[in-house]
């Protein structure tokens, strides 16, 4: 496996000064973006598949082990506060269970049967399952993808090796070849960075496709604290063309939901009518505003 090989460019890293050591690590990190760029077409396929399944009432399951699973979890927990998604829309299955999110559970990733059983018990044919493993051969992830295929769920695999068993089990295959690590086998480094970049793209682009973003603004942000309420005020003010004081008054009428507040201002309707129009437009703010303008 490429991710397990020794990197000739870092063979003497333990003999370098601290600054030179960091330069070498930085140079290796710079190779990651190019590896991800090469798989953009596959990432685009994954985004379209995820958006399609969510529109059809499906959910997203991230499945991983160790560093890969924790990177998946980091992305999953951002969906609700950033995009206002239901709490169960994206879920993470981790080898070793919840305890493994913060502590290593040795041997858990080798349990193919556990991955199979846990996914089979929670997913349905409407869902999409994203299996992630730097090696591409983690048994827990393989088991989950096999269960997903039996259920008829859509499947996506993310790895940094090719060929890899998880790629053979997925409809969409994302293989970002980042090469040998700075420290041989430490896939939390370049492989982990590539995975984080890919998850950023998957979640962000999927939410854009589903109308959770207008322009480059979070129009479904959950205003759960002072910072996010200020953001909601700015978003409404900017899109609706009102000052922030007016934006706050509108938000107070919509339980601090930016989309209906914007529709109220731009279309001159009540909060209830704004919600109705958004529901009819499947939550696509741009569609509602364009209809108002015509």
What does this structure look like?
The structure is a single chain. This protein is of the alpha/beta class and 294 residues long. It folds into two domains: 2-209, 3-Layer(aba) Sandwich (Rossmann fold); 213-293, Helicase, Ruva Protein, domain 3. It is built from 13 helices and seven strands. The strands form two sheets. A five-stranded parallel beta sheet has the order 2-1-3-4-5, sandwiched between helices. Strands 6-7 form a two-stranded antiparallel sheet. A hairpin with a 2-residue loop joins strand 6 (213-214) and strand 7 (217-218). Helix 1 packs across helix 8 (190-209), helix 2 (40-55) crosses helix 8 (190-209) and helix 5 (112-122) runs parallel beside helix 6 (139-151). The longest helix has 20 residues, at 18-37. It is globular and about 65 Å long. The chain starts with 17 loop residues before the first helix and ends with a helix. The mean pLDDT is 95.
SSE arrangement:
Layout: H1 18-37, H2 40-55, E1 60-64, H3 66-76, H4 79-83, E2 90-94, H5 112-122, E3 128-132, H6 139-151, E4 154-159, H7 165-168, E5 172-175, H8 190-209, E6 213-214, E7 217-218, H9 226-240, H10 244-253, H11 258-267, H12 271-280, H13 285-293
Parallel strand pairs: 1-2, 1-3, 3-4, 4-5
Antiparallel strand pairs: 6-7
Helix pairs in contact: 1-8, 2-8, 3-8, 5-6, 9-10, 9-11, 10-11, 11-12, 11-13
């Amino acid at each position: 496996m490429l991710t397990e090989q020794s990197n000739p460019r870092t063979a003497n890293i333990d003999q370098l000064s601290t600054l030179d050591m960091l330069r070498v690590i930085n140079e290796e990190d710079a190779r990651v973006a190019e590896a991800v760029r090469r798989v953009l077409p596959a990432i685009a396929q994954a985004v379209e598949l995820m958006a399609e399944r969510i529109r059809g009432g499906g959910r997203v399951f991230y499945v991983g082990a160790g560093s890969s699973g924790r990177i998946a979890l980091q992305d999953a927990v951002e969906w609700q506060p950033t995009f206002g998604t239901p709490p169960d829309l994206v879920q993470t299955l981790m080898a070793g269970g919840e305890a493994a999110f913060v502590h290593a559970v040795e041997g858990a990733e080798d349990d193919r049967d556990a991955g199979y059983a846990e996914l089979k018990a929670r997913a349905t044919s409407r869902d999409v399952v994203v299996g992630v493993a730097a090696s591409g051969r983690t048994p827990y992830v393989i088991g989950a993808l096999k269960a997903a295929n039996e259920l008829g769920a859509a499947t996506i695999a993310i790895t940094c090796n090719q060929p890899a068993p998880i790629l053979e089990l997925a409809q969409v295959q994302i293989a970002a070849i980042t090469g040998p690590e700075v420290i041989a086998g430490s896939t939390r480094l370049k492989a982990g960075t590539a995975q984080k970049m890919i998850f950023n793209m998957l979640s962000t682009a999927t939410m854009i496709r589903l109308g959770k973003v207008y322009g480059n603004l979070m129009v479904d942000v959950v205003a759960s604290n002072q910072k996010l309420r200020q953001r909601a005020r700015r978003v409404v003010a900017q899109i609706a063309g009102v000052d922030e004081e007016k934006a706050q008054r509108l938000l107070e009428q919509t339980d601090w939901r930016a989309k209906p507040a914007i529709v109220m201002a731009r279309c001159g309707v009540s909060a209830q009518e704004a919600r109705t129009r958004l529901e009819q437009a499947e939550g696509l703010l741009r569609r509602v505003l364009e209809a108002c303008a015509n």
